[in-house]
Design a protein that fits this description.
Elements: E1 3-11, E2 21-28, E3 34-37, E4 43-48, H1 56-73, E5 86-100, E6 103-111, E7 117-118, H2 126-132, E8 134-135, E9 143-145, H3 155-163, E10 168-170, E11 177-187, H4 190-204
Antiparallel strand pairs: 1-2, 2-3, 3-4, 5-6, 5-11, 6-7, 6-9, 8-9, 10-11
């Protein structure tokens, strides 16, 4: 039975290499010999004996050099350090959904406490269109719901479908106001991510 032993980083000597660092992964094979493979699982070279395995000191030195590189550059090409690359937010959207001769439409909408927008004069972002099952209208036209072969066809059916979502609440007015809370992940600033990488790398490289 094959067994994974450890891995060791090494800097790439190819100038145009985008990764700049790679890893050798060391294995013990069923016959008692040893070998290495790359990060893609491609085995390299001929099997060798235990006397050719890197020592613990050599392994520690290799990782020390890698973490020194991360601490200096703020780059983690081997993805060895876990940091958060995004943060959670909840977007608040309100839609005035109405029944018209065009079918079910979005008469107006707003984000949070922002101003109301009529129809499609201001574009909704793609993730909102996808969640609300809306087609992107021509300039100045109203937002309409996407028509599916087996999907809702009447205003009541569309409203019933939207109500099924846990992110949606409804106001009680003549024209229904649909309140939507959309969870989103926004990317952190690159400088903040690099700051965390450098801090953790310095701690690991001690």
């Amino acid at each position: 039975m094959e067994a994974l032993l450890f891995d060791m980083p090494y800097p790439c000597d190819i100038r145009r290499c985008a990764g700049r660092w790679h890893k050798d992964i060391y294995w013990m094979y069923e016959d008692g010999t040893y070998g290495t493979c790359d990060q893609d699982g491609n085995h390299d070279g001929e099997p060798f004996g235990a006397e050719d395995l890197p020592t613990v000191a050599e392994q520690d030195a290799a990782w020390g050099r890698y973490y020194e590189y991360v601490a200096e550059t703020g780059e983690d090409p081997l993805h060895e350090i876990y940091v958060s690359y995004g943060y959670k937010v909840v977007e608040l959207w309100t839609f005035d959904i109405a029944n018209s001769i065009l079918g079910t439409v979005i008469r107006r909408w707003c984000r949070g406490r922002g101003p109301w927008h009529q129809g499609g004069r201001v574009s909704l972002p793609d993730h909102v269109l996808e969640f609300m099952l809306l087609d992107r209208p021509r300039e100045g036209r109203l937002y309409r719901f996407t028509q599916y072969e087996d999907g809702p066809t009447t205003h009541e059916e569309w409203c019933a479908l939207i109500r099924e979502s846990p992110e949606v609440t409804w106001g009680v007015q003549r024209s229904a106001l649909c309140h939507v809370r959309l969870p989103r992940t926004r990317p952190r600033k690159a400088s903040a991510v690099q700051r965390d990488l450098k801090r953790i790398a310095r701690r690991r490289g001690r």
